[in-house]
Amino acid sequence: MAKKKGLKISEYGVFAERTGKRIAGREEEEIYEALGLPYIAPELREDTGEIEAALKGQLPDLIRVEDIRGDLHVHSTWSDGVHTIREVVDAARRRGYRYIAITDHSKGLGIVRGLAAEDLTRQREEIARLNQGLRDFRILTGIEANIRADGTLDLPDGVLAKLDFVIASVHSAFRQDQQTMTERIVRAVSNPYVRVLGHPTGRLLGELEPYDLDFDRLLDAARQHQLAMEINASPLRLDLNDAHARRAKEAGIPLVINTDTHTLAEFDHIHLGVATARRA
């Protein structure tokens, strides 16, 4: 593009080929302007069609941290979180959020203090009391239900139906073959009360590889059951990754950026989820 315009680009800037005069390069925006392009954000510079999109005026409007209005994957002392519901609510309000969902672990996950049906009843009562004292903020009742090895959830539908928000996630039997794992998750997301598939590919960076999944089939199931998929902003997960998130968006699947917060400091990880979404 530069050569067609009689320009030369190097690490030193943009120069007129004929005179050698430096015409741009002090700021990145100048480089794109010299080439007749709108500014292309760094996250988009992957050679995946961003230059062609810029030429057509079709660059996406990238999400910013300031656009985030809530977090739908938050743990409290009711399971393995460090802080009370009141404490996480206060922290979320200080961030300018308008809502959070309390999604503690369900009872089937043995490594944490999971909630049984009677625990959820008491937690819902606490959340109702807190909501009565709040203005311009909403606490949603929820659960992070465990997807068993056979694809069933570890709480009955009658319990899930009373909640505002249900995330379903895999936390065990990670090494199932592709067909078994895919069938397992497809069965789970077919549950009418599941709203979001949590950390959908299951990776733990440096510890656990993603599940062996037929991701296209999972996208088909999510679309069929009007399910959202999570971009989990935890630095251990970043799951969905950018490539999977882009495929989900192209398939028309809603995406939600959550922090999977267990401590108040983890609310700050939202910028990692937003960065993943911007790359997507």
H/E element string?
A: EEEHHEHEHEHEHEHEHEH
Helix content: 25-40%
Shape: elongated
Q: What structural class do you assign from the helix and strand content?
A: alpha/beta
| Amino- and carboxy-terminal Cα gap | 25 Å
- The proportion of strand residues reads 15-25%
Major sheet summary line:
7 strands, parallel
How many strand segments?
Answer: 10
Helix segment count? 9
Radius of gyration: 23 Å
Please describe what this structure looks like.
The structure is a single chain. The chain is of the alpha/beta class and 280 residues long. The protein is 30% helix and 16% strand. The chain has helices at 28-34, 50-55, 85-94, 117-132, 157-160, 178-189, 215-224, 242-250, 270-279; strands at residues 7-10, 13-16, 22-24, 70-74, 99-102, 138-146, 165-169, 196-197, 228-232, 255-258. Helix 6 (178-189) packs parallel to helix 7 (215-224). Strands 4-5-6-7-8-9-10 form a seven-stranded parallel beta sheet. Strands 1-2-3 form a three-stranded antiparallel beta sheet.
